[in-house]
Design a protein that fits this description.
This protein is an alpha/beta fold. It is built from 13 helices and 14 strands. Mean pLDDT is 90; it is low at 377-390.
């Protein structure tokens, strides 16, 4: 099988982390897997990361193999590139070729953000794809981002994007998966599936003690994620909130916090945040844009309280005892107070539901693959291997 993604490490997005774990996990179960991800030229690397980090694809693969090991993943499988570029105006990596042509012949293709992977205008239709089964995992609410972007005719553009994305998926995916009901596209019959987990380090975080009182936010600094609400919550509650992340709107968010005297402390990005978790009791996430937020799942697996807006993307978290929902700012302040005043319940249910072993097993079943064993260490990674069925 092959796992294709719209983004890859070191860009710390949900698709990059989820896809690398799916590729590594399925390979560790005994399947022959190729991991297909974008290769950016020097100019795109500088626009995305501020520097040219990799001289060639093999250098990126070698770095990713070390990083995957540090993140607790099984070994990286066979890796293959497709040409892409970073477009700052879209805040996205855009394919410069047909990604299905870059993928090997396979029994099953798993696509992270299939609609995004089809942005290349000459992407082949289903009849030309060399796979018995195609499975797409939709995880970005483009409708929300476009409508809140402030661009002219945002509503019209949002509707157009939704129709184009729906058509792209209908033409190429045999099965379209979503992580919550927040994801909807015209004419697409989604199947709800829990095929993601969280990094193993979060399950090893020590439990909250009576003296643990820290509050944090972890995520991308993107204005459409309603980070102005985070400023309001910190200001009105008089509660210091540590903000971990990076993004294009960081200066704007810092300026608003300074202007309103909100007690936010900024710490930058952190790829191994589980090491910082012991000092925190509560995760506050005001975003309404996610289909299912990985950072929220990580907090629950770590046994922390989470304070969340009541919206479709957060419905999957309703069954957990450490969740506190709000509908307005008064409710947010009240929810934060409850979380700070109580000890979290055990995290057993969340740790089971967001376990990567179970997630990879569910994904293999949806791909109609024969059962294999539990996760085990597989062969070392390779780059640029000959084209062959997998």
């Amino acid at each position: 099988m092959a796992v294709l993604t719209s983004a890859a490490l070191p860009w710390l997005t949900g698709p990059s982390l989820i896809s690398v774990w799916q590729a590594c996990g399925l390979a560790a179960m005994g399947y022959r897997v190729s991991y297909v991800f974008p290769w950016l030229d020097a100019g795109s690397q500088r626009r995305l990361w501020g520097q040219c980090r990799f001289a060639d694809f093999d250098a990126q693969v070698a770095w990713m193999a070390r990083e995957a090991e540090a993140l607790g993943c099984p070994p990286l499988p066979d890796c293959r590139p497709y040409r892409a570029r970073y477009v700052r105006g879209l805040r996205s990596i855009v394919p410069l070729e047909d990604v299905f042509g870059a993928a090997p012949q396979a029994r099953c293709l798993v696509l992270s953000e299939p609609e995004h992977l089809c942005w290349y205008p000459f992407t082949r239709a289903r009849a030309g794809i060399r796979a018995e089964t195609t499975v797409g995992l939709c995880m970005t609410n483009y409708d929300h981002f476009i409508r809140r972007s402030g661009v002219p005719m945002a509503s019209l553009l949002s509707n157009l994007a939704a129709r184009l994305h729906g058509r792209a998926i209908r033409r190429r995916m045999d099965t379209a998966l979503r992580l919550s009901s927040a994801m909807e596209l015209p004419g697409v019959a989604f199947k709800d599936a829990r095929v993601t987990g969280v990094l193993p380090g979060y399950a090893q975080v020590p439990p909250v003690t009576p003296g643990t009182g820290g509050v944090y936010f972890l995520g991308g600094f993107i204005w459409e994620k309603r980070l102005a609400d985070l400023v309001t919550i910190a200001e009105r509650a008089g509660q210091t909130i540590d903000v971990h992340g990076v993004g294009p709107d960081e200066a704007r968010i810092r300026a608003l916090a300074s202007e309103r005297g909100a007690p936010l402390r900024f710490f930058g990005p952190n790829a191994r945040f589980w090491k910082e978790m012991p000092r925190y009791r509560v995760f506050v996430n005001p975003s309404r844009s996610e289909v299912l937020c990985t950072a929220t799942a990580e907090a629950l697996v770590s046994g922390r309280h989470v304070v969340l807006p009541d919206c479709p993307g957060n419905l999957p978290f309703r069954g957990y005892p450490n969740t506190h929902f709000y509908t307005d700012m008064d409710g947010a302040i009240e929810a934060l107070g409850r979380a700070l005043a109580s000890m979290p319940a055990p995290a057993d249910a969340a740790r089971c539901d967001f376990d990567w072993t179970l997630a990879c097993d569910r994904l293999a079943g949806l791909c109609r693959l024969p059962p294999r064993g539990p996760l085990r260490h597989g062969p070392a990674h390779t780059a640029g291997s000959p084209d062959r069925p997998v």
